[in-house]
Amino acid sequence: MKFLKTLGLAGLLLATGQIVNALAETVPGDAAAGKSMYPLCTSCHGVNGSGNQVMGAPKISGQLEFYTLKQLQHFQNGVRGTVAGDKKGMQMAAMSKGPRLKSPEALANLAAYVSSLPDKTATSTVQGDATKGEAAYSVCAACHGGQGEGVEAMAAPRLTGQSDWYLVAQLKKFKKGQRGYHNADHGGRQMRAMTATLPTDESMNDVVAYINSLN
Ligand code: HEC
Ligand code: HEC
Fold first, then answer.
1. Ligand nearest to the CA of 111
2. Which atom of ligand 2 is nearest to the CA of 80?
C-alpha cells in the first residue's frame, strides 16, 4: 500500500516535471522584434489593433498572447480559414502566409507585439437580453472565466472588451463547422461542441450582451 502511494506520488512528480519542461520549451516572443512586421496588419486591424468591423477584422489588442499566437499558427497551417464560404477566414489565412512570417520565431515575436498594444474596450454593437444571456454564460465561465477574461490553462481566449460583433460571428462559424473542423484543433472542437448550448441567433446575441455587461 505504502509502495503504491509512493509510486503514485512519483508519477505525479514526473507528470509535473513534464509540464514544467513543456513550458520551458516555449520561447517567449520579442515584442520589439515583432513590431517591424505589424505594418502588414494595420490596413485591417488598425495601428492599435482595435479592429475594423467594415473589414470583418476584430480587435486583437488586449487578447491573451498564447491565443493570438495559436490563431496565427492555425491560419498558417490550414487549421482555420479553409472551409468554403468562410471568406473572412480565408482572407486572414492568406495574410498569415506572408514571407516574413514563415519562421516560428517571427510569429511568436509578432504575437508578443500585438499583446503589447494599448487595450481599449471595443464599442458595443450587439443588442440582446443580458439577463437571459447571464444564465447561458454560466456554462462558458468554466473555460473563459467568470469575467470573460480568458483562461490559458483551458486554452480559452478573453471575450470581455473584444469586438462583440466578432464574437457572434465566431459562434455562428463554430456552429456551422467553419471553425473547429480540423483534427489538430482541439480547442476549436471543444468550442464547436459548446455551441449546442446556444440554439438560436437570438441566444448568441443574448450571451454576448451579457459579456458586454461584464466590462
Ligand atoms: C486583409 C485584412 C487583414 C489583414 C491585412 C490582417 N488580418 Fe487578421 N483578420 C482579418 C479578418 C477578416 C479576421 C477574422 C477572420 C474570421 O472571421 O474568422 C482576422 C482575424 C485575425 C485573428 C484572430 C483573432 C481572434 O480572436 O480569433 C488574429 C490573431 C489576426 N487576425 C492577426 C493578424 C495579424 C497579426 C496580421 C498581420 C500579419 C493580420 N491579422 C492581418 C483580416 C486581416
Ligand atoms: C470546454 C471549454 C469551453 C467552454 C465551456 C466554452 N468555450 Fe468558448 N472557447 C473555448 C476554446 C478552447 C476556444 C478557442 C478555440 C480555438 O483555439 O480556436 C474558445 C473560443 C471561443 C470564441 C472565439 C473567440 C475569438 O476571439 O475567436 C467565442 C466567441 C467563445 N469561445 C464563446 C463561448 C461562449 C459564449 C461559451 C458558452 C456558451 C463558451 N465559449 C464556452 C473553450 C470553451
1. 1
2. 18
- Burial group, residue 27, by CB count within 10 angstroms (0-12, 13-18, 19+): exposed
Contact 180, 189 (CB under 8 A): yes
Is it true that domain 29-120 has CATH number 2.60.40.1730? no
**Which residues line the pocket of ligand 1, CB cutoff 6 A?**
40-41, 43-45, 55-58, 60, 63, 68, 71-72, 88-89, 91-92, 95, 110, 114, 157, 169
Superfamily holding 127-215? Cytochrome c-like domain (1.10.760.10)
DSSP string, 179-203: SS-STT-HHHHHHHHHGGG--SHHH
**Nearest bound ligand to the CA of residue 37:** 1
* Residue 12 confidence (pLDDT): 45
d(CA 58, ligand 1 centre) in Å:
7
> Which three cell numbers, joined as nine digits, stand for 108?
511568436
Instruction: Provide the pLDDT for residue 11.
Output: 44
pTM of the model: 0.91
pLDDT along the chain (215 residues), means of 10: 42 43 61 97 98 98 98 97 97 96 96 97 97 98 98 98 98 97 96 97 98 94
pLDDT for the residue 42: 98
